[in-house]
Design brief:
This protein has helices spanning about 5-15, 30-40, 50-60, 85-90, 95-110, 120-130, 145-155, 170-175, 195-205, 220-230; strands at about 65, 80-85, 110-115, 135-140, 160-165, 185, 210-215, 240, 245-250, 260. The chain has an eight-stranded mixed sheet, sandwiched between helices. A two-stranded antiparallel ribbon has the order 1-2. Helix 3 packs antiparallel against helix 6, helix 5 runs parallel beside helix 6 (about 120-130) and helix 9 runs parallel beside helix 10 (about 220-230). The chain is globular, with a radius of gyration of 18 Å. It is built from ten helices and ten strands. It is of the alpha/beta class. The chain is about 45% helix and about 15% strand. The longest helix is centred in the N-terminal third of the chain and has 14 residues, at about 5-15. It has a single domain (about 5-45, about 90-260), classed as Vaccinia Virus protein VP39 (Rossmann fold), CATH 3.40.50.
Length: about 260
């Protein structure tokens, strides 16, 4: 992964390139609506304070657990013992981005929501709270972490979540075989080029113009930036939105020419 200094430089470059976060100068009606109705909307739900209370609990929990990190999403070594607090501070998406995922699901109302990378369950709770009429499937490779996430779901009180444990190379094909089309998929489980592209290529096979694919940490490393460029250039992809920490992918058949937006958030 990039060093903290390199990430800071890249973030400053992003701010210089990004379009106005209020929609000024954005000529795509679809993206303008996304900015106004999603980016600039408020996430209002009585369950949100409960989710954030659980986040604070996890970030202060010193209990030690053994974790096997299958991906490249940690600065720490594989098969190591870490406190829940350490895992939380390294892996949980900030409140701003967790709530953005909530707003995306609440606005577009996908019939199915897939999360690849449960972590401790905070983001999952946001997805499930916004998708109360949909099934949320969340995949996690580390059994101990999945167990903590299940407790998070219980404490917050979100019932519409199914946890699938195991290697994504096995669980993702099984999931895709069980559905007719992808609704929304949030990929946050393996920050390397090859698996990220492979997951995308699997998801795109069952995606259509109503599907939304979201990739986490697209500027986290040279590998992730390479993967993001390949995803953007895929023949089926017509629109992408780069928010620096996450990237959104749309397949809009009505859009005849590719468009790639960098938007300040």
């Amino acid at each position: 992964m990039y060093s903290s200094l390199t990430l800071l430089k890249k973030y400053l470059q992003y701010l210089l390139k990004a379009s106005n976060g209020k929609g000024h100068g954005v000529h795509s009606p679809f993206v303008f609506t996304f900015i106004k109705e999603v980016l600039n909307a408020k996430a209002n739900n009585p369950i949100i304070p409960l989710i954030e209370k659980q986040r604070a609990f996890l970030e202060s929990n010193t209990q030690l657990v053994k974790v096997w990190d299958r991906g490249a999403g940690s600065r720490q070594s594989n098969n190591t013992e870490r406190s829940i607090s350490q895992i939380a501070k390294a892996a949980l998406k900030p409140k701003k981005y967790s709530q953005l995922l909530y707003k995306i699901v609440a606005y577009y109302k996908p019939s199915k929501v897939l999360e690849m990378g449960t972590s401790l369950g905070i983001t999952t709770c946001y997805l499930a709270a916004a998708a109360d009429d949909a099934r949320v499937v969340t995949m996690e490779g580390a059994a101990n972490v999945a167990a903590i996430a299940r407790n998070t779901f219980k404490e917050v009180g979100v019932p519409n979540i199914q946890v699938v444990e195991g290697d994504f190379d096995e669980t993702l094909p099984q999931y895709l075989n069980s559905i007719t089309q992808v609704g929304l998929a949030y990929v946050d489980g393996n920050h390397r080029y090859e698996p990220t592209v492979r997951y995308f290529e699997s998801l795109i096979q069952k995606s259509n113009e109503e599907s939304i694919l979201i990739f986490d940490d697209i500027h986290w490393s040279a590998e992730m930036e390479q993967a993001w460029e390949e995803i953007k250039n895929h023949a089926a992809v017509t629109l992408t939105i780069d928010l620096f920490f996450i990237g959104l992918v749309f397949i809009r058949k009505a859009q005849k020419q590719k468009e790639h937006f960098i938007i300040r958030y």
